[in-house]
């Protein structure tokens, strides 16, 4: 297939390499013209995926015309909070037979839309059945090194989910299919908020017991929100729920866990973000998750605590003990 990946960050670059290895004709779009030239010259994404060579067969471009015309599949690898501005530029293209695949993990601030909902909102002529997502426990740094990884491809349409599954599947990158696109998107987005919470636990030196509690009760909150919005509960026990939560809360690669760790050590959010080159999706998703829970009257104490720590300067240690001393409840 002819496949374009929009977004030359670490994840977009790693997926481009996978798709190229599967024999597809791949175009990688970079929004900065100067950096697109640098990537073409060096064939190494030093800013986002150092040490990994980009095969010469992959076309690297700054031109959306080159990236979007007559493509069988468009992979959206732009961070969710910047994605709408890119999608707006795609309205002039004919996507009648094009499959869209989101690999971003976030909930848009203001609208509270998932990425697939954002695509449908901006490109109403694109068939909803041709929109899918790819998500799961997958750090670009490891995928690019062919570390065995399992993810899930989801779409409302089973054939589309299987098309995505087939496009990406390799001997080291195993892809499962699902028709619960909403659950897969919410699992991938909301686990980033829990990863910030897990990082706060690390930074405040609480311990493994506390982190396990945050992760386990965190997946309960994610499932509570997801099922209230119409997702399938079993999705959150799978790769895009529990699987992604584990890797993001535990890994040294996790940008969201890193943000939480720095906050737990007493640093201010604005200073932490200023020091980072890559985007931590969970920071903005935390705001959206908080608003989503309030809007739908869903009990989400960990999300509430994370929101108050990030945006209202609440003391992380005090917030943790407030979680511990809430009224007694049944586990299920």
Query: What summary fits the major beta sheet?
Result: 8 strands, mixed
Question: Quick one: CATH class of the largest domain?
Answer: Alpha Beta
Low-confidence stretches: none
How does the overall form come out from the CA principal axes?
globular
Going by CATH, the architecture of the largest domain would be 3-Layer(aba) Sandwich
Assign the CATH topology of the largest domain: Rossmann fold
How many β-strands, per DSSP? 10
User: What is the CATH superfamily of the largest domain?
Assistant: NAD(P)-binding Rossmann-like Domain
Radius of gyration: 19 Å
Number of helices: 15
Helix content: 40-55%
Number of domains: 2
| SS content category | alpha/beta
The quaternary organization reads as single chain
Task: Tell me the strand percentage band.
Answer: 5-15%
Overall mean pLDDT stands at 96
**Terminus-to-terminus distance:** 46 Å
């Amino acid at each position: 297939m002819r496949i374009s990946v929009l977004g030359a960050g670490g994840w977009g670059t790693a997926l481009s390499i996978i798709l190229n290895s599967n024999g597809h004709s791949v175009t990688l779009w970079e929004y900065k013209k100067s950096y697109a030239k640098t990537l073409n010259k060096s064939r190494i994404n030093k800013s986002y995926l150092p040490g990994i060579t980009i095969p010469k067969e992959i076309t690297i471009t700054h031109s959306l015309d080159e990236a979007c015309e007559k493509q069988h599949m468009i992979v959206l690898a732009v961070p969710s909070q910047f994605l709408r501005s890119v999608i707006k530029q795609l309205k002039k293209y004919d996507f009648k037979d094009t499959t869209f695949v989101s690999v971003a993990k976030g909930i848009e601030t203001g609208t509270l839309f998932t990425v697939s909902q954002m695509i449908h909102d901006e490109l109403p002529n694109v068939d909803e059945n041709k929109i899918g997502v790819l998500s799961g426990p997958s750090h670009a740094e490891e995928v690019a090194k062919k570390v065995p990884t399992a993810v899930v491809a989801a779409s409302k349409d089973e054939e589309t989910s299987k098309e995505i599954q087939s496009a990406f599947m390799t001997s080291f990158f195993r892809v499962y299919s699902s028709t619960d696109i909403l659950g897969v998107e919410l699992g991938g987005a909301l686990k980033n908020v829990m990863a910030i919470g897990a990082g706060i636990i690390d930074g405040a030196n609480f311990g493994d017991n506390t982190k396990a509690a945050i992760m386990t009760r965190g997946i309960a909150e994610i499932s509570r929100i997801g099922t209230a919005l119409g997702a399938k509960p079993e999705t959150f026990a799978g790769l895009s729920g529990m699987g992604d939560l584990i890797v993001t809360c535990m890994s040294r690669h996790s940008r969201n866990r890193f943000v939480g760790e720095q906050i737990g050590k007493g640093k201010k959010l604005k200073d932490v973000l200023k020091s980072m080159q890559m985007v931590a999706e969970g920071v903005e998703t935390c705001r959206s998750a908080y608003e989503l829970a309030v809007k739908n009257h869903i009990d989400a104490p960990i999300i509430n605590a994370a929101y108050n720590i990030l945006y209202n300067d609440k003391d992380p240690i005090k917030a943790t003990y407030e979680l511990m001393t809430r009224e007694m409840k049944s586990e299920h």
